[in-house]
């Protein structure tokens, strides 16, 4: 199963030096890496395009969701895997995500921090993520443990077009669309490491509100049978 590895990035050049060798080590022929670069000066001094490695320069920063959509639209393979550039996600776990997508009934596989642990969790994040996941489970009648983590593998037909969100709450737009298309969502244990360089772009209160709002929107659409 071949995958397009999409790495949305903003000011992550120092992390690329460590991330790319790890990605290349676990990927087989036919996989591709797509870096969506959201910095004005670009990553050309750090990342050189090569076979199965492309850089999309997105000089107008509109949010992580917008960068992810650019990656989806340029993906050549049937599966997309989202990997954050900050080294918090484990490329070595990508084969575990892809393995569950061998089942045609599964549309998304999440790398779960609730099952694999996290070096980044503080009490606020832990409580917030648990609350959001409980809300998602309530609306969709599923049992997930870490619905919000961005490390996931997705069937490209779910996300290739029609997504509207430009910010981080696109994570729930993707899960909602997956459920409405009749696919299942699965999880595998994956450990979240602490960010190596740079600063986080997620803010608990600001994005927590947006996440909750999107869960409600997606849940209502699912309950009413809307697309």
What does this structure look like?
This protein is of the alpha/beta class. It contains eight helices and seven strands. The chain has helices spanning 13-26, 64-74, 94-100, 113-116, 123-140, 156-159, 170-180, 204-224; strands spanning 3-9, 32-37, 53-57, 79-82, 106-112, 152-155, 184-189. A seven-stranded mixed β-sheet has the order 3-2-1-4-6-5-7, sandwiched between helices. The two termini are 28 Å apart. The mean pLDDT is 89.
Biggest sheet, spatial arrangement of strands: 3-2-1-4-6-5-7
| Cα radius of gyration in angstroms | 16 Å
Helix content: 25-40%
Distance between the termini: 28 Å
The pLDDT mean sits at: 89
- Sketch the topology as an H/E string, one letter per element: EHEEHEHEHHEHHEH
- Biggest beta sheet summary: 7 strands, mixed
Notable characteristics:
40% helix; globular; alpha/beta
Layout of secondary structure:
Layout: E1 3-9, H1 13-26, E2 32-37, E3 53-57, H2 64-74, E4 79-82, H3 94-100, E5 106-112, H4 113-116, H5 123-140, E6 152-155, H6 156-159, H7 170-180, E7 184-189, H8 204-224
Parallel strand pairs: 1-2, 1-4, 2-3, 5-7
Antiparallel strand pairs: 4-6, 5-6
């Amino acid at each position: 199963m071949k995958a397009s590895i999409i790495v949305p990035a903003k000011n992550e050049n120092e992390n690329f030096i460590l991330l790319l060798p790890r990605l290349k080590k676990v990927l087989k022929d036919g996989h591709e890496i797509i870096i969506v670069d959201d910095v004005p000066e670009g990553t050309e001094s750090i990342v050189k395009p090569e076979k199965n490695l492309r850089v999309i320069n997105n000089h107008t920063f509109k949010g992580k969701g917008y960068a992810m959509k650019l990656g989806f639209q340029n993906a050549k393979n049937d599966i997309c895997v989202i990997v954050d550039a900050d080294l918090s996600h484990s490329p070595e776990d990508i084969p575990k995500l892809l393995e569950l997508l061998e089942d045609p009934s599964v549309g998304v596989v999440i790398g779960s921090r609730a099952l694999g642990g996290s070096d980044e969790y503080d009490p606020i994040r832990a409580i917030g993520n648990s609350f959001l996941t409980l809300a998602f489970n309530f609306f969709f009648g599923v049992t997930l443990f870490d619905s919000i983590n961005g490390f996931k593998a997705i069937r490209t037909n779910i996300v290739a077009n029609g997504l509207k969100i430009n910010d981080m709450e696109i994570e729930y737009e993707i899960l909602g669309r997956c459920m409405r298309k009749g696919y299942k969502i699965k999880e595998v244990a994956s450990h979240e490491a602490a960010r190596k360089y740079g600063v986080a772009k997620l803010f608990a209160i600001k994005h927590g509100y947006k996440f909750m709002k999107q869960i409600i929107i997606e849940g209502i659409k699912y309950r009413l049978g809307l697309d």
